[in-house]
Design goal:
The complex is a heterodimer.
Chain A: H1 7-10, H2 20-33, H3 46-60, E1 80-81, E2 99-102, E3 109-111, H4 112-125, E4 129-132, E5 139-142, H5 146-159, E6 175-176, H6 190-200, H7 202-206, E7 216-219, H8 228-231, E8 234-240, E9 245-246, H9 248-256, H10 276-279, E10 289-292, E11 295-298, H11 308-312, E12 317-318, E13 323-329, E14 343-349, H12 358-374, H13 381-388, H14 390-397, H15 430-436
Chain B: H1 32-36, E1 41-48, E2 51-56, E3 61-67, E4 72-74, H2 75-88, E5 92-95, E6 101-105, H3 108-120, H4 158-168, H5 170-173, E7 184-187, E8 201-206, H6 215-221, H7 224-229, E9 236-243, E10 246-253, H8 263-267, E11 280-285, E12 300-307, H9 314-330, H10 337-344, H11 346-353
Parallel strand pairs in B: 7-8
Antiparallel strand pairs in B: 1-2, 2-3, 3-6, 5-6, 8-11, 9-10, 11-12
Classes of the chains: A alpha+beta, B alpha+beta.
The structure holds protoporphyrin IX containing FE (3 copies) and iron/sulfur cluster (4 copies).
One protoporphyrin IX containing FE (HEM) sits between chains A (81, 101, 133-138, 165, 173, 215, 231, 333, 335) and B (146, 151, 153, 191-194, 266).
Protein name (chain A): Dissimilatory sulfite reductase alpha subunit
Keywords (chain A): 4Fe-4S, Iron, Iron-sulfur, Metal-binding
GO biological process, one term (chain A): sulfate assimilation
Amino acid sequence: MAKHKTPLLDQLESGPWPSFVSDIKQECENRAKNEKGVEFQIPADCPEDLLGVLELSYVDGETHWKHGGIVGVFGYGGGVIGRYCDQPEMFPGVAHFHTIRVNQPSGKYYTTEFLRQLCDLWEFRGSGLTNMHGATGDIVFIGTTTPQLEEIFYELTHNLNTDLGGSGSNLRTPATCLGMSRCEYACYDTQALCFNLTNEYQDELHRPAFPYKFKFKFDGCPNGCVASIARSDFSVIGTWRDEIRIDQEAVAGYVGGELAPNAGAHAGRDWGKFDIQKEVIDLCPSECMSYEDGKLSIDNKECVRCMHCINTMPRALRIGNDRGASIFVGAKAPILDGAQMGSLLVPFVKVDAGNDYQEIKDIVEGIWDLWMEEGKNRERLGETMKRMGFQKIIESAGVPVDVRQVQEPRTNPYIFWKAEDVEGGWDRDIAEYRKRHQQ
Amino acid sequence: MAFISSGYNPEKPMENRITDIGPREYKEFLPPIIEKNFGKWVYHEIVEPGMLMHKAESGDEVYTVRCGGARLMSVTHIREICDIADKFCDGHLRFTTRNNIEFMVDSLEKAQELKKYLNDQKFSGGSHKYPVGGTGAGVTNIVHTQGWVHCHTPATDASGTVKATMDTVFDEFQNMRLPAPVRISMACCLNMCGAVHCSDIAILGIHRKPPMVDHKVLDNICEVPLAVAACPTGAIRPTKVEIDGKSYKTVAVKEERCMFCGNCYTMCPAMPLSDKEGDGVALMVGGKISNRITKPAFSKVVVPFIPNEPPRWPTMTKVIKQILDAYAEDARKYERLGDWANRIGWERFFEKCGLEFTEHLIDDFRDPAYYTWRQTTQFKF
Ligand code: HEM
Ligand code: HEM
Ligand code: HEM
Ligand code: SF4
Ligand code: SF4
Ligand code: SF4
Ligand code: SF4
């Protein structure tokens, strides 16, 4: 027998898409039956009270969580999001309902053994409810009480060899596309770089020392499967700088209709016979391709590596062999001064596991030096860039100025010069001037 | 409910503490066939909706079956996912960047058997547990946020709006008949945790009433300068008020300057603003992340307000369907929703989608607003 009546939520049990309500209800039932005899460390009816408070929000049209909440584990300044219900008498099972961010493996591959260990821990010490995964990438354990936090952390680190993720004004949990594990477009090993930088900067991740939050994300190519250009302050996107490899035989396969364009992504509708001119050559943004006498050619010097032709004919066209990545900085959501996507800082950098990615780390640390010193309270890197100018970021990152860093040159002539770059400097005497120009 | 210690000693909290170990290494969890062919993939095919095949230099093939996940899920559900992975995939699986679940096997027969099995699993209420789909030119999972399940600043619910929307567009999850992929995202306030500012279609929770100020407690629970600095439009200033003869340090909100972003509440618990009638959702469209053909783009607001109608948000889902249908019908192959709107012109976009254009859609935020107005004689009647 359900503890609370949930007539509104019950309506979300129908329809084809997996119902979170049905799923929470099955967790309620399992905890009530408790066939395994688990000694639940927080109220067994916690998920029931969650449904109760959610139903109340559906009636009131307003959230029922109190503002904020500061909880955590010793030694760390983040990783746990505290949360308290604003109707604790009605819903005692969620009076405390803290979220724990658990650092996920790069690319989110799992063994069932590891997932089951996580489930056993969370069923025992928490609500049994999760997010797989948070937008930043963490495994999110939703709902436990303050006294359980250290216990959970102890078990995570001692038994599961796993750490918390980030929260607060610090480096958040980095995330990556699946990269070379299962994609032929990957221009570098995104998972390895993600794992390496996460470990290198553990201190910055667990102990807030920044003006505001800072995120890393790693895409293997410009398709952006982890959306780094929109969702990370520091975004690394794979690319190449030599030729796209062409297999003319396979091109003929596409033209002849043996191979489906775009790997079959449009198979659900009749778009007519594949027309290489119309679907590839004419859509190339740099107009650098041609198809004559059954031969496809690409003027690679003019190619902007947008991925369209490769996406459309994956069996005929392949990324180049001289691979690396571009670095973009400053993406953020609207608060305060408007949304930003990452701006190109470094057009090409080698992603070199051999020297422990030192070149990329130097750029990260150069940027942090400036932003930690000059960034205002709660000012994202993107906003610091706007306030101080992109030139300052280029300088602190220690990278060269490059025309590729702009979409177009400035239109206003309000140009700053440094005194040392102007002949004679800025120290001038008005008396000298008056000798040539009478008042 | 007897307390059971993990071994942690609260008397000596720093003893035996392990820190800074980071995540488990991904290599521990790769299926053997992925590990063997890591970085040696040659091409891929989408065999049918929800099923991919990747071919390696070695000739090995890996078949991936992708199915929808509600993201908010119980340990019971995760264990069932594990049972499936144990049964079909030697105990391996992964989750995607859009919170779908992927199972990998080494032959087409196994993949088809698995697909059928997944599509057959239902919750007691009738919904699919693991609907297969989310590949190619269709609608995949909705990246979303906490909503009324866990956050204190939302203007709408996340899990509910997402379930209602996915039910409405479900056929597109299991099909690949759109001109290009359509990414839908949702955020329950304009902190936009997630991908709302860069999606083809985005649902965004918004408020329409200025914050209330709890003068009596404000100074005790907020840092006044932080609340002042939190406001994008400079609507907040420090002040003093007199209540029952007592003077309180507090803030004043210039209501005509406030656009209800809620950022002051994020910083100051004495400034709540949620409201049943005032709150609702805005719809945005035309964003993208990939660099394919055109540059990445922000999504733009095309519907300034739709009221919250829990539990199924019928007006919101109707408008989303309307936009999706107009796009599916009119756009060219490979054209993302934003590419289509840009080509035909936004005046035509509103006409074709049957949306009303109101003053709320004209940008008025600082300098850059100017660049969104029309500085050309080129327009369509
Ligand atoms: C008020 C309390 C807030 C809560 C409860 C909250 C909750 C969350 C959660 C659970 C995630 C996913 C985290 C993960 O995967 O590890 C997230 C991500 C995010 N949050 Fe928040 N958030 C809050 C405030 C904010 C604020 C103030 C901003 C910006 C001004 C913000 C912007 C974002 C963004 C942009 C992401 C997604 C980044 C990505 O795509 O990786 N959030 N938030
Ligand atoms: C071998 C080829 C590819 C692989 C293995 C791959 C892998 C993935 C995976 C696993 C996801 C998460 C999917 C989901 O849950 O719905 C994803 C998302 C995505 N993919 Fe790909 N992808 C490939 C090709 C492409 C192509 C050709 C494009 C663009 C034309 C693309 C653009 C994206 C974007 C924009 C996202 C969503 C990011 C977001 O909004 O969060 N990918 N990709
Ligand atoms: C003592 C200072 C200035 C003097 C004596 C001056 C003089 C003039 C004159 C005589 C013209 C008309 C030229 C013609 O016959 O078409 C003119 C045009 C113009 N001035 Fe100035 N000007 C001064 C300062 C400025 C400043 C400070 C600005 C801008 C910041 C400016 C911007 C312009 C522009 C844009 C035009 C062209 C207007 C058009 O579009 O037709 N001037 N100025
Ligand atoms: S971003 Fe590129 S390399 Fe990474 S999974 Fe997507 S298509 Fe593949
Ligand atoms: S990658 Fe893009 S720019 Fe380069 S040739 Fe192909 S379609 Fe043209
Ligand atoms: S979008 Fe806003 S309301 Fe939703 S989880 Fe993020 S901060 Fe909370
Ligand atoms: S809600 Fe936003 S605009 Fe309104 S006063 Fe608060 S910070 Fe300013």
